[in-house]
Design goal:
By secondary structure, the protein is mostly helical. It has 7 helices and no strands. Helix content is 74%, strand content 0%. α2 packs across α4, α5 packs across α7 (136-146) and α6 packs across α7 (136-146). It is elongated.
Length: 148
């Protein structure tokens, strides 16, 4: 079952339950997935579907950051939307999983003690392995923590 079908099914369930907020969040995700498929003029791969979901989460988080603190209604709506979108997001790697991959990459590149000079080379090898599975900021922080 494609992600579009999953979202559509969940949306129908929300409509039957008269859960307007959940239906709205799912509707936005569904339209984003459909628009991506229309732009591509083909069915989306699982990785592309994941990218769309992660993009929606990122945009919602940016909206939260730009919203004034006194607009609690918008902030609550954003928090709820993120919780709904995260149901469809891929499992993200945590710090320990990223360190594991980083250790393998350092071994492949034969770098015992990484320095700032090696950062570009390390990221070039590391990012394709964690792309879509880990937050870029977290990857950068983990790498910075092991560099001398």
């Amino acid at each position: 079952m494609s992600r579009i079908d999953e979202v559509r099914s969940e949306m129908q369930t929300a409509m039957k339950a008269k859960d307007k907020d959940r239906k709205d969040a799912l509707s936005m995700l569904l339209s984003a997935l459909k628009n991506k498929a229309i732009d591509k003029r083909a069915d989306l791969t699982e990785e592309e579907e994941n990218q769309v979901v992660l993009k929606e989460i990122k945009q919602t988080k940016e909206t939260m950051e730009l919203t004034p603190a006194d607009r609690t209604d918008i902030l609550e709506e954003c928090r709820f939307r993120i919780s709904v979108l995260e149901e469809f997001a891929p499992h993200m790697m945590d710090e320990s999983e990223i360190k594991e991959v980083l250790t393998k990459v350092l071994a492949e590149l034969e770098i015992a003690e990484p320095t700032a000079k090696d950062k570009g080379k390390i990221m070039k090898a590391l990012m394709p392995q964690v792309k879509g599975k880990a937050d870029g900021k977290l990857v950068n922080e983990v790498l910075a923590s092991v560099m001398k």
